[in-house]
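Comment thread on ticket #2218

A.B. wrote:
> Attaching the input chain for the structure job we discussed in standup.
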Amino acid sequence: MKQLLAVLLLAMNLAFAGEAVPLADDPQLEARVQRLSEELRCLVCQNQTIADSHAGLAQDLKNQIREQLRAGKSDDDILAYMTERYGDFVLYRPPVKATTLLLWVGPFLLLGVGAIVTVVAVRRRKPRVDSCEFTGEDHARAAALLAGTPETTK
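C.D. wrote:
> Ran it. Output below, let me know if you need it in another format.
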């Protein structure tokens, strides 16, 4: 029974297997496709390049790049086409412009605000005052307890 279950699980895995994408006949063309794919963001995954993504849209975009390269377009033409069609968001490293300035400066601003909040919190913290001072009487009681003599009450 366990063997049958194992065979069924393996058979189900075959159903989910994706088809291998054939490489171009020209290795130089495929290298350019790879290089351009690493500069474009997957619009589905949003945190991966289309070179790393397995989403259907990423495969379609790679095929578009391949077709445009075969048509003789330059890398800059293809990046301009993708940017025109999908906006600066499609670029994995967006240019520094007024509209993308917050993307570039935002992390440093948050780091600065966090540092300022930390410094202010540390400075406002009151110093710890040790109010537990021992008197001579306390020392005598402690010595009596350590010596094993009964403690005298007040």
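A.B. wrote:
> Thanks. Noting for the ticket: The two ends are 82 Å apart (CA to CA).
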